[in-house]
Design goal:
The structure holds 2 protein chains of 2 kinds. Chain A has 13 helices and 2 strands, in the order αααααααββαααααα. By secondary structure, chain A is mainly alpha-helical. In chain A, strands 1-2 form a two-stranded antiparallel sheet. Chain B folds into 3 domains: about 220 residues, Arp2/3 complex 21 kDa subunit ARPC3; about 60 residues, no CATH class; about 40 residues. In chain B, strands 1-2 form a two-stranded antiparallel sheet. Chain B is about 75% helix and about 0% strand. The two termini of chain B are about 50 Å apart. The chains are: A mainly alpha, B mainly alpha. At the A-B interface, helix 1, helix 3, helix 4, helix 6 and helix 7 of A face helix 1, helix 2, strand 1, helix 4 and helix 7 of B.
Chain lengths: ~270, ~350
């Protein structure tokens, strides 16, 4: 069932993010910024670029191994390539038929190259985003956002949303199970029942918000929420950021794959 | 309808980020002094509600496949434009981080496409104008279907233009539009119907809750949507201009330096930086960066967009790729071993 797995996934990433490794201890700001810059570097490669993209794998691999994150947590996300991406990308081989080179007599068109490039970019950006949250807890990200002058109301909103996400997901999981138990196949899943179910969920949520507000008032809430600040930028952060930014820049300027390839060719052939 | 990082160019992604950030700042400032204390937990819980609600499927009539709601307009109706925009943003931020729906660079575009239109066009300009405070069954249905359809059409249109301007897809604009717009018309009608039905049903079951909501909803009267739109257009033009200028001059500069390093003989006579800059500026006035247009002249694209097209290089590319992949794998493996030995020491 899709629901269970999604719910499990969310909780799983959450538990991963509370590990204590070198990378988990870095300031969330560093990881957020380096990851963003990484994505910009990856995406700024031209649409026919393949060889230059491959070395960029080093960043996700580093996060994965140094954060002690199980590979399957990431792999699952990458293997289910978003349908929208395929929907857009699949047209490239159809519309862009200029042959670019022949590999063992099979002509390869530019369209296939660009589709492959899109998929590579997808793998790199998605894995780094998933790994970012796996090595930085969500409250950590919120702390970083707050320090980076994101409006406080949005940060508070994110923290609230995250806190009650698990509660409400459990509630809708119960609802889905109850519906499943009372319906056969597609019956009971029609729009009419669905809107009523959702309305009830909405009412429960509104009531919950009311109770939360009362609980907050009784604990002395006066309209101001104070956020915990745990991290600060240290020596490790600077080393991490500086070395990866240098690596990204080198990978962007030099085509490492071609350099290695030429070397190998001169050895073997 | 989530955009993906892999389909966006940095210039388009950056522009949408700027627009979204501007709207978030504006909404936050609007809320700062007017907000009711009750609103804070309410926004968080309703964000979680949208998330939870999206997990419940229903069968789409006539197709047999199942879908889930988006919920943007429902939030706008329940909370008003500014809080709703912040809630939608936070839902999309969490989706981008935990489910990699979209991605970090595409986040700006996604928040804009799915949040801006329902909050600042669909709700204030269509829903409110039709309802005018009278919640009749027919009126609510009519208003919510129309507003959702229009918001979704605008959102889908933005997706098309963002993808097209990024220049990753080869899909012709007309085909792309024909694929996107009708699908989103159908989705819009269903979503609009569901939104209307929920608004009505909740009103019927718990009128007190709805009244309570109306009480704390903050929509300062006479809010000028026109000002918002104009300032957003200006932000878009400025950031889009700056970023695409960067995007078009920078890679060229880098490629040029690579050629210098590789010592390729056929570098055309040294262009001075000024003429180079002017040339790119000229290209810029054609709105799109040069590499995004599928080449008007064939020879040019074959030399510029893929400089190393030689059957010879494909072999070295292949060998090099395998080599680099092996090295990265080795690198990861080493880190793993270091980790393990370290943890053993600690024990």
């Amino acid at each position: 069932m899709r629901f269970d797995s999604e719910y499990f996934n969310l909780g799983y990433l959450d538990t991963l993010s509370y590990k204590d490794t070198f990378i988990h201890r870095l300031d969330p700001r560093t990881k957020l910024l380096v990851t963003l810059i990484f994505i910009i570097f990856v995406v700024s490669n031209s649409k026919y670029e393949i060889t230059k993209l491959i070395p960029f794998l080093i960043y996700p691999v580093f996060l994965l191994t140094s954060g002690n994150i199980p590979l399957r947590a990431v792999l699952k996300k990458i293997l289910i390539i978003s349908p929208f991406l395929i929907f857009i990308g699949i047209f490239n081989p159809i519309f862009d038929k200029r042959t670019i080179y022949m590999i063992i007599g099979i002509p390869i068109s530019q369209g296939w190259i660009s589709l492959f490039s899109i998929i590579l970019k997808f793998i790199l950006t998605v894995s780094s985003a998933i790994l970012l949250i796996a090595v930085t807890s969500f409250p950590g990200i919120c702390e970083a956002l707050e320090k980076m002058k994101v409006p406080k109301i949005l940060v508070i909103q994110l923290l609230f949303l995250y806190r009650y996400l698990f509660v409400l997901l459990e509630e809708s999981l119960k609802i889905v199970r109850a519906r499943e138990a009372r319906s056969f196949g597609k019956r009971g899943k029609d729009i009419k029942t669905f809107t009523k179910i959702l309305s009830v969920l909405l009412i429960r949520s509104l009531e919950r918000a009311e109770r939360i507000y009362q609980a907050m008032l009784s604990r002395g809430f006066k309209g101001e929420i104070h956020l915990l600040r745990k991290h600060s930028i240290g020596f490790n952060d600077i080393v991490f950021a500086a070395s990866f930014l240098t690596i990204f820049y080198i990978l962007k300027v030099y085509n490492i794959v071609n350099i290695f390839g030429e070397e190998l060719k001169s050895i073997f052939f | 309808m989530h955009m993906a990082d892999a389909l966006l160019s940095p210039a388009v992604g950056g522009t949408m980020w700027a627009l979204t950030a501007g709207t978030i700042l504006y909404s936050a400032r609007k809320l700062k002094d007017k907000i009711d204390d009750k609103m804070i937990p309410l926004m968080g819980v309703l964000g979680a509600f949208i998330f939870a609600g999206q997990m419940i499927n229903f069968t789409i009539p006539g197709t047999g496949s199942s879908g889930h709601i988006g919920g943007g307009m429902l939030l706008a109706i329940l909370l008003g434009p500014y809080p709703a925009f912040l809630v939608i943003s936070s839902v999309l931020i969490i989706q981008a981080l935990f489910f990699a729906d979209g991605g970090l660079l595409a986040l700006g575009a996604n928040i804009w496409n799915l949040g801006f239109y329902p909050c600042f066009i669909g709700y204030p300009l269509i829903f409110k104008k039709i309802i005018k405070g009278r919640f009749t069954n027919k009126g609510v249905m009519y208003a919510s279907i129309l507003s959702v359809v229009i918001s979704l059409q605008l959102g889908a249109l933005s997706v098309v233009f963002e993808t097209k301007l990024s220049g990753i897809t080869e899909l012709p604009l007309s085909t792309f539009l024909l694929l996107m717009q009708p699908i989103h018309l159908a989705i819009g009608i269903i979503e609009g119907f569901i939104t209307g039905a929920i608004v009505l049903y909740v009103r019927k079951l718990r009128p007190d809750l709805v009244e309570n909501l109306e009480g704390i909803k903050t929509l300062p009267s006479g809010v000028s949507i026109k000002n918002v739109l104009i300032s957003m257009a200006i932000i878009a033009l400025i950031t889009g201009g700056i970023l695409s200028w960067f995007a078009s001059t920078h890679p060229d500069g880098l490629e040029w330096s690579i050629e210098k390093i590789y010592g390729k003989p056929e570098v055309p006579e040294h262009p001075s930086p000024i003429t180079e800059g002017l040339k790119t500026l000229q290209e810029k006035t054609a709105i799109l960066p040069d590499y995004s247009i599928p080449s008007t002249s064939k020879e040019e694209s074959e030399t510029s967009s893929w400089p190393q097209v030689k059957p010879d290089t494909s072999l070295s590319g292949f060998l090099g790729s395998i080599m680099v992949l092996l090295l990265i794998f080795l690198f990861g493996f080493c880190i793993k071993i270091i980790r393990k030995s370290k943890t053993k020491h600690e024990i």
